[in-house]
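Hello again, I could really use a second opinion on something today. I've been staring at a protein lately and its backbone has me curious. Please have a think about how the structure follows from the sequence. I owe you a coffee for this, so here goes:
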Amino acid sequence: MTTRNLPAVGILLVAVALTAGCGSDDDGSPNANPSVSSEAAPTGPPTPPASPSADGATSPPAGAQGTTQRRPASAPPVVLPKRPASAPGAKQVVEAFRAAGLKVPRPKDRSVDCGPDGLGLGCSELMATDAVTVYVFPDETSASDIAETWGGQSYQRGAVVLNYLEAKTPAADRPRYEKVLNGLR
């Protein structure tokens, strides 16, 4: 062996000795008690659990500075575009249908579906019923684009689009809904 290899062999022997000496006394059985090192044992008084703050978030214990706290993953709130002041709201349209004696069974506000987590259509408001779905868009151009996409299964008036795709509204009744929408403003 040359003198060049001696330092490398020495380092290797030290590493093997340290690794062998650092092993646990665990015999591999599931009932073996884990060894406790002085690094893992808490020193000093126990730290109190994290307490919720006024905004509901938990603050880290006093002794946990420098540690990273995991926060529950939550999506940021969806901010929908505002509807034009000149356009009626989706709920207002559904109420006008009801006042005119038209069927609007099981109305449901599904405006959250307008955002990126839903349909992502970019609408401002969305009310769905079993007869018709009412979309209100932030501008007439967006409403027109969607109405063209849905073809003969929709009707557009300004920023409002009536969609009949999922509805069971007979084609003969659709002009009555459209007439009520045209009367709003």
